[in-house]
Amino acid sequence: MPEGVDGFIALITSMGRRVFVTTDVIDLAKLDSPNEVYILQMVDNSSAAGGRGGGMGDRRVVKVYHYSCRNGDCVKVGESEDEAKIESLDLPYHATAFPIMLPDGREKLVSGVVDKELVASYRSVLGL
User: Fold this and answer.
1) Who contacts 41 (Cβ-Cβ below 8 Å, separation ≥6)?
2) Across-strand partners of 19?
């Protein structure tokens, strides 16, 4: 996968269950303000309901991506599949529909939350 904003966009628009945890809203047409983004890759279930109420499925995180957006670009800081570290993360159960503005002005709805304290805790736990 390419690095930088193109890689970030590819990750946003690809299939799969992800939760975004950020320090600010994500507007890829305006990358001047600093923004840290953690993307939690969730287990993909093939069943529609996944065994949980509301069809939420398994909430287990299998991979975490970390991007830093500023100065006109989003740079991949790192990623982790370290199960012990991932299991110690506080999951954002308060995540809701979260709009990401793409560079062409289109909006992509994902699941996410703006939470500076949660971002700081992820940085501390993951070392990313």
Assistant:
1) 16, 17, 18, 61, 62, 63, 64, 65
2) 40, 111
pLDDT along the chain (128 residues), means of 10: 74 89 92 92 64 54 94 91 94 90 91 96 92
Which residue range is the domain that position 9 belongs to? 4-126
Q: In Å, how far are 54, 97, 110 from 101, measured between CA atoms?
A: 27, 13, 11
- Name the DSSP class of 54: G
Print burial letters for 36-46: b (CB count within 10 Å at least 16), e (below 16).
bbbbbbbeebe
Tell me how far apart the alpha carbons of residues 105 and 103 are, in angstroms, rounded to a whole number: 5
For the chain, the domain total comes to: 1
Q: Does pTM surpass 0.90?
A: no
DSSP assignment of 8-39: HHHHHHSSS-EEEEESS-EETT---S-EEEEE
